[in-house]
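Researcher: Structure prediction, please.
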Amino acid sequence: MFMLGRFGKTILNCLFPIYCVECRREGTWWCRACRGTQKQSAHFFETPSPLNGLLAIWSYHSESPVGELIQQFKYNHSSAISELWAEILPAELPVAVASASVVPVPLYSRRERERGYNQAKIIGRFLAGKLQLPFIPDTLKRVRATRQQARLSRLEREENVRGAFISRPAPSEDVILVDDVFTTGATMGECAAALKANGARRVFGFVLAKGE
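Model: Predicted structure follows.
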């Protein structure tokens, strides 16, 4: 992803000022005062197989500050929010994954071209850097277009992504599979199944937020 220099950011902020999602203070997406001073950490959640568990920082509510930021990041071409994620992603996880590789959930090629970026790939790259783990973005491929999961029921989501992913040989026995939000787990479950069919022993999901 292209990163602006300090001068470029100054010009961009003058043309398109940003405001804290809570207090509306100018100059930041989510100021330190509003998000608190506590260290952001990932929490572990049990999940059905083939995932071996889920790691999530927040709970997801569409009208919460985190929900609004994720929606801006995902649908409104606000890739600059990635700098916020880079700042607050954890540097350690509550599971033993010292030899794991970080793999993002892929977008279909046409959708990634339309959006200009894959939000899971951006999060995954920063997370791998924080954890000092290999980032292997081309391990999974989405082989067909799917409808947006957010608009579907649980059963429709499962059918929508069934067989939609293929995997190269898993880069390590343990994989951290990265996306922005976990709701029913249909997408991550399909990705985990593809990874395990190609050599992964354990697959842990990592997301910014977990839906209720």
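Model: The chain is about 35% helix and 15% strand.
Researcher: Thanks, that helps.
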